[in-house]
Amino acid sequence: MENMINLNEKNKRVGIVMGSSSDFPIMKEAAKILKEFGISYEINIVSAHRTPNDLYEYGKTAVERGIEVIIAGAGGAAHLPGMMASLTALPVIGVPVKTKSLKGIDSLLSIVQMPKGVPVATVAIDGAANAGLLAVQILGVKDPEVMEKVIVYKKKMEYEVMESRRKIEIEEI
């Protein structure tokens, strides 16, 4: 994981954090989307339960380091996204990571059931790619170049669906 955070480094727009290295195969999908859009990011393991001091430091210094959106993935009790949201005014996107025992339902419920005043946007279980895309869309609100890339991305998706539709129509005849 060559993009592990250096707290002295600046100019990363999105912070991706996860509770455990076992979450990396899921969370790297957010990084792939950010890379596709040319958005700088940092990625790290910050456990709400095992490294609370790191969690606190990360959340409290994110703005001064230039982070604009945080994507936080966690499984099980999944306190990382909510705790991160309690430490910063930045938008936090939670990624519930699938678990063996409850298939990620526990993670999903832990992340979406935030108290009033501490919102966490939440994507589907293992939905890190959508978290990355949502982060890009949030950045696009104030960055016209990023917004244009989102528009092109969505047009490309539309085109792909139309092409699929044409192929089915041809095969049906």
Automatic annotation (TrEMBL):
Which positions does UniProt annotate for substrate binding? S20, D23, R50
InterPro entries named in the record:
PurE_ClassI (IPR033747), PurE_dom (IPR000031), PurE_prokaryotes (IPR024694)
Query: What single Pfam family name could you report for this chain, choosing any that match?
Result: AIRC
What are the residue boundaries of the PurE domain, all occurrences included?
12-161
Q: Kindly list the GO molecular function terms attached to this UniProt entry.
A: 5-(carboxyamino)imidazole ribonucleotide mutase activity
Gene Ontology biological process terms from the UniProt entry: 'de novo' IMP biosynthetic process
Q: What does this gene product do?
A: Catalyzes the conversion of N5-carboxyaminoimidazole ribonucleotide (N5-CAIR) to 4-carboxy-5-aminoimidazole ribonucleotide (CAIR).
Q: According to its UniProt record, which protein family does this protein belong to?
A: Belongs to the AIR carboxylase family. Class I subfamily.
Show the PANTHER family listed in the entry.
Answer: PHOSPHORIBOSYLAMINOIMIDAZOLE CARBOXYLASE, PHOSPHORIBOSYLAMINOIMIDAZOLE CARBOXYLASE CATALYTIC SUBUNIT
Q: What's the protein name? A: N5-carboxyaminoimidazole ribonucleotide mutase
This chain's source organism reads: Clostridium polyendosporum
The coding gene here is purE_1
